[in-house]
Amino acid sequence: MPTVLAIETSCDETAVAIVNNRKVLSNIVASQISVHTNYGGVVPEVASRMHLETINQCVAQALEQAQLDWSGIDGVAATCAPGLVGALLVGLTAAKTLCMVHSLPFLGVHHLEGHIYANYLTEPSLKTPFLSLLVSGGHTSLIHVKDCGIYESLGTTRDDAAGEAFDKVARLLKLGYPGGPIIDRLAQKGNSSAFKLPEGRVSLQSGGYHPYDASFSGLKTAVLRLVQQLEKDNPVVPVADVAASFQNTVARALTKRAINCALDYGLDTITVGGGVAANSALREHLQAAAQTHNLRVLFPALKFCTDNAAMIGCCAADHLSRGHTSSLNLGVESRLGLNRVMELY
Fold it and tell me: If I label 111, which of 4, 139, 251, 304 is the partner at 20 to 30 A Cα–Cα?
């Protein structure tokens, strides 16, 4: 099986990894969180400049950690979509340059396909078809994974992604950035049943509600109004209880949709990917519900939930083993549907 050096620079982490099939030989991640925390979110121009500063060092560290030189690399991959255009260009340009210098095939990888493949790193025996729940700061989707490069979107968010809702609620509660890990830690000390919050539903024109689509903007607004009322009535707002109630509501909404979707489509395995896959409440709710319905649910290791290049390398290795390669003329896209993955090869 091919050994791929992969680069991931879609947002605020400069990541380089070397993967042989589904085995990680090295995994380097240079996080920018401490810098963007000062702004309360990711600043695209700052992210791009920091990728430029660290990319060469990350490539060198990945090769050193894997104890390989370029003779042991069969291809170079980079995330090309979706993401911040400037940030993506840094990784894509670096990957193309390395391919030209070392006469290696190039592969442009879809970021969300990478998150699907993160589960193969911890469960190498995983086979298609299965249902993938992708939950991150920019995406909340239910994907029918039929084969490498063949995907059908069954559900999505109509407004805020789950991770985005975590960040906005954390800002509202003055907890800092990024919101997901902070709320998760604080929720451990709170009462998840303290406040009843709306899960958010998407209405259908024909009547009723969409069974798989999600909406989190209403939940975010409900938390805002709750906090405003609590500030009027109490000298101290029970922040831990608010955080726990909010987190529990998100986990419950995601679990309900994922389980119903898997059952309706006859899929016995649910995988979870993206930064919110690290959330303890989502893991607890989904595992319990899956067991009740005799379904298997898989979560990546925590280090593979957030953006990383190992998942990109795993995805690229599968494509390369099938003879898929990308043109050196391939560009970057800020938005690109998963149904267009094979246009990259």
Answer: 251
Q: Which whole-number Å values give the CA distances from 35 to 43, 58, 85, in the listed order?
A: 9, 18, 19
In the Cβ-directed half-sphere of 60, how many Cα atoms lie within 13 Å?
A: 4
> What residues pair up with 31 in beta bridges, in sequence order?
13
pTM: 0.94
Residue 116: in which H helix or E strand, if any?
helix 111-122
pLDDT tens for residues 179-227? 999 999 999 999 999 999 999 889 888 888 999 999 999 999 999 999 9
- What lies within 8 Å, CB to CB, of 247 at 6+ separation is 166, 183, 184, 187, 192, 279, 281
Average pLDDT over residues 135-161: 94
Enter the tokens of residue 61.
Answer: 């560290």
Q: Check the CA dihedral 193-196-202-206 and report its sign.
A: positive
Pick from 284, 277, 276, 222: which is nearest to 252 by CA? 284
Cis amide prior to 129 (ω within 30 degrees): yes
Model pLDDT for residues 29-84, shown as the tens digit of each residue: 998 777 787 777 788 888 899 999 999 999 999 999 999 999 999 999 999 999 99
Query: Checking phi first, is residue 41 left (phi over 0); if not, alpha (psi -120 to 50) or beta?
Result: left
Question: What's the chain's length in residues?
Answer: 345
C-alpha distances out from residue 21 to 60, 75, 300, 311, Å: 21, 12, 16, 11
For 129, residues 6+ apart whose C-beta sits below 8 A from its C-beta are 144, 145, 146, 147, 267
Burial of 239 (0-12, 13-18, 19+ CB in 10 A): middle
